[in-house]
Amino acid sequence: MSLALTRNELIRPLNLIDGTWTGAADGARFAVTNPATGETIAEVANSSAADARAATDAAARAFPAWRDKLPRERAEILRRWHALIVANTEDLAKLMSTEQGKPLAESRGEVAYGASYVAWFADEATRIYGDLIPQQQRGKRMSAVKEPVGVVAAITPWNFPLAMIARKIAPALAAGCTVIAKPAEDTPLTALALAALAQEAGLPNGVLNMLSASRENGIAAVADWLADARVRKITFTGSTPVGKHLARESAATLKKLSLELGGNAPFIVFDDADLDAAVTGLMAAKFRNGGQTCVCPNRVYVQAGVYARFADLLATRVAALKVAPATDPQAQIGPMINARAIDKIASHVEDAVKQGAKVLTGGKRLTELGPNYYAPTVLTDTRDGMLVCCEETFGPVAPLFRFDDEAEAIRLANDTPFGLAAYFYTQDVRRIHRVAGQLEAGVIGINEGAVSSEAAPFGGVKESGYGREGSKYGLDDYLSIKYLCQGGLD
Ligand code: SIN
């Protein structure tokens, strides 16, 4: 896919620091490649700790003036940013599909999804209320006000190059924080374009700083942020091991943390479910972004009475999915992000088959399309102990596990250190309440596979992390509460 945009200036291979687009201090660069072809799209700044420090300096300087703006003034800038994102949908979608591989229709959807967080938090900026505490003693007045935490470091993944960074930056800016951000090394171009649009919307210099870095350099850049006491909060979406590392390393300066980490979502189909609805829900949840989302069902538990029928219905739908480059208007599944991802998917399927699983459809690489394509796959006769059960596959593979009763389904679903999303299908209203109450996850889809929304609190429990993004709760992580006690009033 050649990268010619309507506005080619949205391709920014530089860092944004203090309102200036600049290369890495030592001039280093690295290549961003198209996962469909392996071709280089652009060479971007390969930032080091020195660049990370410059970004923190700028954000710390910009903080007091941004904090002191009226909430309405911050909201206006966010609204202009939202309008610019929407107006540049086609360019952003094209950029995203080129560096990440998702079909263009999905990229357009992601632009709208990411923009919705900006609009949402523009409104929320004007609703940051405190409390006047009912009087406890004569002559004393007590109140609680909310203040921005300060400089926020946002570290984001490659699977949603626009939405994940928008839903961190927007609430931070709405709250009055300034931001230093590092998008994933695979997909920095969409995020840098988003920063260019924020600048165009009138965001003052230093309020949003963004830098790109390779995996190795990114570790050093983030280490600088972790050690810097001026950085008061880290918000991260990515793997659980990295989340734990950030929690450990930020302990020295006790930063506030939001961690949206790995999932291993169960999807339970009870024998009283509407099977067609369950298949449709699973298709939406499992094959979004080629199975590369943290909320994708990883383990599909189907009750014995409907197992064979459900497997047939699902295999028919999955076999019909069109796998093609993002530019093909019919594409439903694009390439996976890189060679590591495709190797992991292949190794999970091989392991399952070696242990007795059957491939109903798929089960192979599609090398005729390019290096990173994998056929959408349905596996039956999968069981505990297989890699597809205990690790996040992060690809288009649906392994079907059989269960006999409700207690067993809940036990199996919860038998994981993770707890991001869980889904179940049943038409029994009493079961809905029982099961929803017992599933250990932060997000529950009940007869529904599409759960994400800017108006809903998104986040996990257990080793899937803490903090919530989106909704009225999404601002809390960027605010601290100050208690004011005024005496001498009698
Ligand atoms: C994720 O995969 O981390 C986010 C998915 C979403 O927002 O729906």
Q: Can you walk me through this structure?
A:
It is a single chain. Helix content is 37%, strand content 21%. The mean pLDDT is 97. It folds into two domains: 274 residues, Aldehyde Dehydrogenase, Chain A, domain 1; 189 residues, Aldehyde Dehydrogenase, Chain A, domain 2. The radius of gyration is 23 Å and the shape is globular. The longest helix is centred in the first third of the chain and has 21 residues. The N and C termini lie far apart (74 Å). It is of the alpha/beta class. The chain has a seven-stranded mixed β-sheet, with helices on both faces. It has a six-stranded mixed β-sheet with strand order 9-8-7-10-11-21, sandwiched between helices. The structure holds succinic acid.
Summarize this entry quickly.
This protein has helices spanning 49-67, 71-87, 89-100, 104-124, 163-175, 188-200, 215-227, 240-249, 275-287, 307-319, 339-354, 387-390, 406-414, 429-438; strands at 15-17, 20-22, 29-33, 40-45, 131-133, 141-148, 151-155, 178-182, 208-210, 231-237, 256-260, 265-269, 297-303, 358-361, 377-380, 397-403, 418-419, 421-425, 443-446, 461-462, 465-466, 479-486. The protein is of the alpha/beta class and 490 residues long.
